[in-house]
Recover the amino acids of this structure.
């Protein structure tokens, strides 16, 4: 799919931007703090109603404006989709093709976007919570039934934990929450296993292109093996009651990531970690392409920083041909787009566009 | 709020406690009653008081009723051995509108919800189990909502019901006359799980 037009007003430091991007590589140039990242964030927000930098939507509104508006026109294989979000005084109104939407979840899957930002290095470096979030976000976009199971699982988990906080939890009551926790949890384990299985092969291919010669291994590390959750909950119940919380289950899952045979979290260099995170995002994109038949829009924030010309060329090699991508860079002078691939350049200055 | 009056604020708060009433609507209701003729306001408060006094919980099914036992529990043509368990009186009303159910009801007045502090003791569970002990009930239909809480309540009923009483759960799935494309993904997943053999 291709973004054919982007419009925003008062989104963070962006004043008013009307962008007609090219179908392949779009370079967004600009000095620091001019609004390059905000532009990618605005595209992400328009497509998913989520920001990668904050959960507080108030922060997205230009200080002083008290409102913002983002709109994307996207050419999909079969038809054009227009997504529009207007935020005003804490209220979010979303329109799909001009029709107001009641449920935000109706937006999911309409336009798929994959973003890679410098913060993504935390996917490799930090604790398991971020990797689970990556899994949940990617899977929810691809499989709405996964999102339904996830929401149900979280609700049942909250209820069970509340019950565990009681002085002497009634075993008969715990039973009825356990049944549901196990049922929804098994759906999560099964879908995650299948997803990571597919993702692992694609991620190691992508990594091979970015960092020629090295091996990336990605594997699902479920807290509980498939089919065993009901049994595990039973076995660990006494401990759960003592600790007043549900200690085991898919809410403790992780993804193991190894570079050149050693755990990337503790042993890989900064550069390897960044490449591994990027490989995960490219794999996510590849997988979405396989499942939906359409290439998601790729947003790459500051990937070119610190890369020499050879590494930059390898990076462009890893971007699927035909994929539309938006790349921010502070590099004002040097031509970075490889020859033979159609590229359009935009310059952002003080929150506004200046076509170069 | 333009009227700085504690009495008006109390009235607005009272409306806000009603389901589906937000701040604006509560203010509209309050202002309407205050600017309408005195008799209108008096008639409303009288209607609320009378209904409250006239309506109680049926001693058998715990549904709201003016006569005790309620009309359904005292209807000899209905199957008193088949009990449909619902969370709220509105659930029983919905099934009654269908017009085909010939059994009786039991209203729990809620569902298990630890986060809201609702356990079995806060629901009309004891009254239900007493009915089962009488030996006249052969089947209960767990018609609690298709939420995590409704599901937990249904499972609890199934486990606590005495042996010899059959416990069934209403089916979840595609609405009648509804196309698949209008059904949400969660419902469709359940509908697929609960598929029935046809040949």
């Amino acid at each position: 799919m291709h973004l054919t037009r982007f419009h925003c007003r008062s989104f963070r430091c962006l004043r008013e931007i009307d962008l007609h991007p090219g179908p392949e590589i779009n370079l967004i140039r600009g000095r620091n703090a001019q609004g390059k990242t905000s532009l990618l964030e605005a595209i992400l927000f328009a497509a998913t109603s989520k920001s990668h930098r904050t959960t507080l939507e108030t922060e997205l509104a230009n200080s002083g404006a008290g409102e913002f508006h983002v709109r994307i026109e996207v050419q999909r294989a079969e038809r054009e989709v227009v997504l529009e979000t207007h935020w005003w005084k804490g209220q979010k109104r979303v329109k799909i093709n001009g029709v107001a939407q009641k449920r935000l979840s109706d937006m999911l899957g309409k336009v798929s976007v994959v973003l890679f930002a410098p913060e993504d290095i935390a996917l490799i470096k930090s604790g398991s919570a971020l990797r689970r979030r990556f899994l949940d976000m990617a899977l929810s976009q691809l499989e709405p039934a996964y999102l339904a199971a996830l929401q149900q699982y979280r609700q049942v988990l909250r209820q069970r934990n509340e019950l565990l906080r009681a002085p002497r939890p009634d075993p008969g009551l715990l039973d009825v929450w356990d049944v549901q926790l196990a049922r929804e949890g098994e759906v999560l384990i099964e879908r995650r296993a299948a997803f990571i299985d597919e993702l692992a092969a694609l991620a190691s291919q992508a990594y091979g292109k970015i960092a020629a010669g090295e091996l990336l291994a990605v594997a699902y590390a479920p807290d509980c093996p498939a089919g065993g959750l009901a049994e595990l909950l039973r076995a660990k119940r006494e401990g759960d009651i003592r600790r007043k919380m549900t200690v085991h289950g898919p809410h403790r899952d992780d993804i193991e990531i190894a570079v050149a045979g050693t755990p990337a979290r503790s042993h890989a260099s900064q550069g390897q970690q960044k490449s591994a995170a990027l490989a995960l995002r490219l794999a996510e994109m590849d997988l979405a392409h396989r499942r939906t038949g359409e290439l998601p829009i790729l947003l790459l924030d500051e990937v070119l920083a610190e890369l020499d010309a050879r590494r930059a060329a390898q990076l462009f090699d890893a971007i699927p041909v035909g994929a539309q991508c938006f790349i921010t860079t502070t590099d004002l002078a040097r031509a970075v787009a490889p020859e033979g691939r159609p590229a359009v350049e935009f310059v952002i200055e003080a929150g506004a566009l200046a076509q170069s | 709020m333009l009227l700085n009056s504690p009495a008006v604020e109390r009235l607005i708060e009272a409306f806000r406690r009603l389901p589906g009433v937000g701040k604006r609507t509560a203010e509209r209701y309050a202002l309407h009653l205050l600017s309408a003729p005195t008799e209108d306001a008096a008639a409303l408060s009288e209607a609320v008081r009378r209904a409250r006094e006239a309506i109680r919980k049926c001693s058998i099914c715990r549904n709201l009723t003016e006569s005790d036992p309620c009309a359904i529990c005292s209807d000899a043509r209905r199957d008193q051995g088949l009990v449909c368990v619902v969370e709220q009186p509105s659930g029983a009303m919905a099934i009654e509108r269908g017009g085909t159910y010939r059994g009786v009801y039991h209203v729990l007045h809620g569902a298990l919800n630890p986060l809201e502090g609702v356990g079995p003791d806060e629901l009309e569970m004891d009254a239900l189990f007493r009915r089962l002990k009488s030996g006249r009930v052969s089947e209960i239909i767990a018609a609690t909502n298709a939420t995590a809480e409704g599901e937990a309540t249904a499972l609890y009923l199934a486990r606590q019901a005495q042996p010899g009483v059959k416990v069934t759960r209403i089916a979840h799935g595609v609405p009648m006359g509804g196309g698949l494309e209008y059904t949400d993904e969660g419902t469709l997943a359940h509908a697929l799980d609960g598929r029935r053999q046809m040949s």
Notes: The interface with chain B takes residues 144-145, 147-149, 152, 155-156, 158-160, 162-163, 166, 170, 172-173, 175-177, 179-180 of chain A (CB under 8 Å). Chain A has ten helices and 15 strands. The two ends of chain A are 25 Å apart (CA to CA).
